[in-house]
């Protein structure tokens, strides 16, 4: 009897999945649950208590994370003094989701506003140094309309 074929991309996963390094990943898991309604799928603790690997579900997407491992040169953004990466999160109600993240302890880096590309959009930094953008798509626009909106913004027009 043959066994079913193993899927190259596991059920519930997408082809791209963010994998975050956090100082104190257990606290990060609790924060993401409170800030973004993350649901923990699993957690693999290391013998010393650090999180070796965890997987959370936020909306319809997965997020993986681990503790810092300095002995393997694996550091989170707070240890590195910043991050070049922003995790983009589409939500049903950006204003409510943004408030929820800030109430949970995120820091506002860009207040929510209507953007020229058709999204209502804002950015926060989480307590672990990761940058998040939150958005609700409000208007479908052509590339020409987006480019005109960008030009207007650069010229200081509404």
Please supply descriptive tags for the structure shown above.
4 helices, 158 residues, single chain, 34% strand, 4-stranded mixed sheet, alpha/beta, 2,3-Dihydroxybiphenyl 1,2-Dioxygenase, domain 1
Could you tell me the CATH topology label.
2,3-Dihydroxybiphenyl 1,2-Dioxygenase, domain 1
CATH top level label: Alpha Beta
Give the low-confidence spans. Answer: none
Count the beta strands.
Answer: 8
Calculate the mean pLDDT score and round it.
95
Strand content: 25-35%
In what order do the strands lie side by side in the largest sheet?
1-4-3-2
Which radius of gyration do the C-alpha atoms yield?
19 Å
Shape: globular
Main sheet specs: 4 strands, mixed
Q: Architecture in CATH?
A: Roll
Distance between the ends: 67 Å
Q: Tell me the structural class.
A: alpha/beta
Helix segment tally: 4
The helicity comes to 10-25%
Order of helices and strands: EHEEEHEHEEEH
**Number of structurally distinct domains:** 1
Please describe what this structure looks like.
- The chain is of the alpha/beta class.
- The chain has one domain (19-154): 2,3-Dihydroxybiphenyl 1,2-Dioxygenase, domain 1 (Roll).
- It has helices at 25-36, 77-80, 94-104, 143-154, and strands at 19-22, 39-45, 51-58, 61-67, 86-90, 107-114, 119-125, 131-137.
- The strands form two sheets. The chain has a four-stranded mixed β-sheet, covered by helices on one side. The chain has a four-stranded mixed β-sheet with strand order 5-8-7-6, covered by helices on one side.
- Helix 1 (25-36) runs antiparallel to helix 3.
- The radius of gyration is 19 Å and the shape is globular.
- The protein starts with 18 loop residues before the first strand and ends with a helix.
- 26% of the residues are buried.
């Amino acid at each position: 009897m043959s066994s079913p074929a193993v899927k190259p991309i596991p059920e519930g996963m997408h082809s791209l999945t963010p994998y975050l390094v956090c100082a104190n990943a257990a606290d990060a898991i609790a924060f993401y649950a409170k800030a973004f309604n993350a649901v923990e799928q699993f957690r693999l603790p290391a013998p010393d208590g650090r999180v070796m690997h965890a997987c959370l579900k936020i909306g319809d997407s997965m997020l993986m994370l681990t503790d810092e491992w300095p002995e393997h040169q694996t550091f989170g953004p707070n240890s590195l003094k910043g991050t070049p990466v922003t995790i983009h999160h589409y939500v049903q109600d950006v204003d409510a989701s943004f408030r929820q993240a800030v109430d949970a302890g995120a820091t506002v880096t860009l207040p929510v506003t209507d953007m020229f590309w058709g999204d209502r959009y804002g950015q926060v930094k989480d307590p672990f140094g990761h940058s998040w953008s939150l958005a609700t798509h409000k208007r479908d626009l052509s590339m020409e309309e987006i480019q005109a909106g960008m030009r207007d913004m650069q010229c200081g027009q509404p």
